[in-house]
Amino acid sequence: MAPHETDIDAPDVDDDFDEVILKPSADLPADRFLDRELSWLAFNQRVLELAEDEKLPLLERANFLAIFASNLDEFFMVRVAGLKRRIMTGLAVPTNIGRAPGDVLADISARAHELQLRHAKVYHDSVKPALSEAGIQVVTWGSLDEADHEILHRYFTDQIFPVLMPLAVDPAHPFPYISGLSLNLAIRVRNAKTGTEEFARLKVPQMLPRFVRVDSREGVASLRYIALEDLIANQLQDLFPGMEILEHHTFRVTRNEDVQIDEDETEDLIQVLEKGLLKRRFGPPIRLEVGEEMDPTTLDLLIRELDITEQEVYRLPEPLNLGGLFEIAGIKRPDLHYPPHVPTTAAALTTAEANEPRSIFASIRRGDVLLHHPYESFSTSVQSFLEQAAADPNVLAIKQTLYRTSGDSPIVQALINAAEAGKQVLALVEIKARFDEQANISWARKLEKAGVHVVYGLVGLKTHCKLALVIRQEKGELKHYSHIGTGNYNPKTSRLYEDFGLLTADPQVGKDLTRLFNELSGYAIEKKFKRLLVAPLHLRKGLLKLIHQETTNAQAGKPARIRIKINSMVDEKIIDALYLASRAGVQVDVWVRGISSIKAGVPGLSENIRVRSILGRYLEHSRIFIFENAGDPQVYIGSADMMHRNLDRRVEALVRLPNTEHITELDELFNLAMDDATASWWLESDGSWSRHTVDASGAALIDLQDHLMKSMSKRRRPGGHR
């Protein structure tokens, strides 16, 4: 068999596939799914537990506090907003069987309140004091002396005062619009002449540093920072001369920012999306965070003017918006960060004599190359692949999907260079990638100006698959070189996200991608591919058939096992199929980062299902599907999570890995992740998560990511020969 030829196709979901498999078993219990929203909050609790972990480097703990806050903001802007909209419009609330819609939001509110208070407590009682001991102080105005006050007043006068815009609220000035996620001061003042009380709102400028450095003086050795709103609040007399400052309190509003687009009634998706982005700014409020000392008069005014409920009010210790801790976490103190890690170049992409890149096309021709980022370098593999393709005179065409990247990305520049060199270049840009819409529109237009053929996806679908195809002329023939990954083509996040990617010269994969790209830029999605499973038409069906085969094998006494690594496990049909497999005796391992609606270890339902979660230095982002197949494993990697949006409303792609060494590598990775000796969170049968970091003797368990960094920096992976 030639190095890239394969003899096993992707599951045929049309010819012999019985649709009854797609229907849930009648005897499965009605309460078999965990609530997805509460499961997401449980995921963010795991992030918070990292911030609470005193064994982690201090500035990394501060970073996890900021990640928790940022995550929760997006959760409210999208998930809570979406649920509220569904309830108000009378639509069904999914995966909440037997629960009243109002109870769903009430449960979310109660849990979110609990977590936000815990989050603030970790900052005030643990992280902030530890930072102070390490020489990084977050101070208050009242703790500073007159010399510091003078320095900060000059800074306020020169750098802050000119950009502030106090807005009065009175019969001549209606209550102002409060932008989402902005930090604000609610100020009550009294007119010294008339004695009347007035209200004003002051927005804390978002373009200024969240924490202002207090200049060090002789005898002051530590770094000192003051929250920007604390500094501004103590200069209010400059903003309201002649007025008596009665009260001032911070508050913050979260709005519904989930853009809804009617793609069926437009000929220009970009124009409609840009209008939608403008509407995003004016979405209804769904959360009000206030300082815990806010007086009742001010709070009542905000509740009335913002038209929110008491349930949506979150009283918190100041400072609000601890997402601003990203600035503190970025302080250059190597002793307070994770040790630096330099990714290695994949062994298959280096020469035998030295760690120097050779022709990447020659390397790929030698055999499939499986990449594991960030342990292996993105820049010397995927980025180099596209940069060499752009510069190679034998390359005729480059086709690529782009979901999230950056305008200054070398990936975008490589496509521009290729187009300017006269090559055919197609970029399928998903401009509907949430919260990256405006940026994607900007650099997509930059690509168009350079001569790149830019396609903006399909009506009604997001293009989420991670695909790149290079067509190269070699000895009078056209050769296909392909990359299929689990993560975005973003060099920045590739250093923070854990992902897999496959580089291959397999002609069948090349043909599959050629057809898929043609259909993405045309009008239809093909149902059948040889080495790919593609959503929305047949990815779910293909996976269900593979799960069903494991169930059948277990019933026949053949080897059967299912292993899935995923970001979110929500889809009811997939979960039901896994329950049926468990009942048949199939050992099911689910390695999930975020949401898990599947239950684990429930007698009679899922006693053969284990669910583990690993969080740490890197964001676990890859998706892996391993099916034992009676001793002939079928293994896929790709972009799809097990969620309705991925399987029904997105173009996703999984690629099958035929290389036995790659299959073994992924299986060994699973063995390590699911081993009781590896630190992880376990999903218990009651739906709770328990963290396991030490063994019975108190010894620390293996840190998976640290282990991989050390082991992969030492090894040389074989080049992918079968």
TrEMBL record:
Q: Which domain of life is it from?
A: Bacteria
Identify the catalytic residues.
H464 (phosphohistidine intermediate)
EC number of this enzyme? 2.7.4.1
One GO BP annotation is:
polyphosphate biosynthetic process
Q: Which cofactor does it need?
A: Mg(2+)
Q: Does the keyword field hold Cell membrane?
A: no
SUPFAM superfamilies reported for this sequence = Phospholipase D/nuclease, PHP14-like, PPK N-terminal domain-like
Question: Which keywords does UniProt give here?
Answer: ATP-binding, Kinase, Magnesium, Metal-binding, Nucleotide-binding, Phosphoprotein, Transferase
Q: What range(s) does the PLD phosphodiesterase domain occupy?
A: 616-646
The UniProt entry, under InterPro entries, shows: PLipase_D/transphosphatidylase, PP_kinase, PP_kinase_C_1, PP_kinase_middle, PP_kinase_middle_dom_sf, PPK_C_dom2, PPK_N_dom, PPK_N_dom_sf
Q: Name one GO cellular component term.
A: polyphosphate kinase complex
Q: Which GO terms describe its molecular function?
A: ATP binding; metal ion binding; polyphosphate kinase activity
Q: How is it modified after translation?
A: An intermediate of this reaction is the autophosphorylated ppk in which a phosphate is covalently linked to a histidine residue through a N-P bond.
Binding, ATP? N71, Y497, R593, H621
Q: Where does Mg(2+) bind?
A: R404, R434
* Catalysis: reaction(s): [phosphate](n) + ATP = [phosphate](n+1) + ADP
- HAMAP family tied to this protein: Polyphosphate_kinase (MF_00347)
What this chain does, per the entry, is described as:
Catalyzes the reversible transfer of the terminal phosphate of ATP to form a long-chain polyphosphate (polyP).
Q: What does the similarity note say?
A: Belongs to the polyphosphate kinase 1 (PPK1) family.
Q: What is this protein called?
A: Polyphosphate kinase
